[in-house]
Amino acid sequence: MILLAIETSCDETAAAVVRDGRDILSSVISSQIAIHAAYGGVVPEIASRKHLESLAPVVNQALRDAGVGMEALEGVAVTRGPGLSGALLVGFSAAKAIAAARKIPFVGVHHIEGHLFATFLEQEVPFPFLALVVSGGHTHLYHVEGFGNYTTLGRTIDDAAGEAYDKSAKIMGMPYPGGALIDRMARNGNPDTIRFPRPLLHDGTLNFSFSGLKTAVLQQVAKSPVAIPSQAADDLCASFQEAVCHVLAAKTEAAIRQTGATRLVVAGGVACNSGLRSRMASLCRRLGVELSIPPPSLCGDNAAMLAVPGDYYLSHGVVSPQSLDVTATWNMDSIKETLL
Ligand code: KG4
Ligand code: ZN
């Protein structure tokens, strides 16, 4: 099946053409980051307006790159939620319109389901597996038994890991979103310089908390301001990254031990992080667990990732009705009741 996939949940307008939920024929991502950076974060109204401007050119580019016309499309997969309602609506309405005009089915997919299965675009992972999803809005551990069949084992009780990166970067005086920049600076720093807190490390749950870490960065910067670039800034970044990765790895290890999982998928924008990637690799080597992380190009928001669950659903007769609406919040655990 040749699917068109569309993603507009936050600040990336993305479209992709994917065959059989595995072969990426094209993947186009138009980022609004430069526009939102001036405001220090994503401005929902601006995001919707930019999606409206960019979507048609992005979809046309994806079709051109794939070398196919609209008539070749057999279905549409689109992010239905969670995300910014106005932003979601742009992609969702376009997907519905294309499906109706072409008389092909469409399916609304959970954004995090896309992230979870991005790694399948490189190599399939047999079910069941444990998944750590770390993005700007999510830090969740899921037990994944199949498409649509997810159980949350743990989650952040406040900020997401990506949010902690971006907020801490802002405190340090870096432009939005600072996650990737902290990662780059951390590589030249000493992670033992500052002992940042490891929230909820020994609370016996699989939950995370990152808001205290951000406060600790604020206090540290107030006490000893750092210039960027400088060795002190690199050390600060390395110490921060060490605290985040330590907690993510420790909770993931606890989840592996608790569930007896033999396979781990790490996904979402923060899965680009070099410290997290190497830490997860050594954790999995030590525990004899098979690790799958998408290449960095597929970790961040993109449309191709949606085609993996999208293709599964459409080829199993799960089709969304034209009356379906977007949803700003959507619990992954309820998908098996609502979608399947
Ligand atoms: O998955 P994603 O592209 O969008 C959401 O669904 O949220 O994730 C974006 C998040 C941002 O917070 C960004 O700063 C973070 O991923 N990020 C990173 C790195 N690259 C992106 N965080 C840490 N290290 C990185 N290398
Ligand atoms: Zn995302």
Detail the topology: elements first, then pairings:
Blueprint: E1 2-7, E2 12-19, E3 23-31, H1 33-37, H2 44-66, E4 75-81, H3 85-102, E5 106-110, H4 111-117, E6 129-134, E7 139-146, E8 149-155, H5 161-171, H6 179-186, H7 211-223, H8 231-259, E9 263-267, H9 274-287, E10 290-292, H10 296-299, H11 307-315, H12 335-338
Parallel strand pairs: 1-4, 4-5, 6-9, 9-10
Antiparallel strand pairs: 1-2, 2-3, 6-7, 7-8
Helix pairs in contact: 2-3, 5-7, 6-8, 8-9
Bound molecules: 5'-O-[(R)-(carboxyoxy)(hydroxy)phosphoryl]adenosine (KG4) and zinc ion (ZN).
Architecture overview:
With 340 residues, the protein is α/β, with parallel strands linked by helices. The chain has 2 domains: 156 residues, ATPase, nucleotide binding domain (Nucleotidyltransferase, domain 5), CATH 3.30.420; 166 residues, Nucleotidyltransferase, domain 5. 43% of the residues lie in helices and 19% in strands. The strands form 2 sheets. A 5-stranded mixed beta sheet has the order 3-2-1-4-5, with helices on both faces. The protein is globular, with a radius of gyration of 20 Å. The model has no long low-confidence stretch (mean pLDDT 97). Bound molecules: 5'-O-[(R)-(carboxyoxy)(hydroxy)phosphoryl]adenosine and zinc ion.
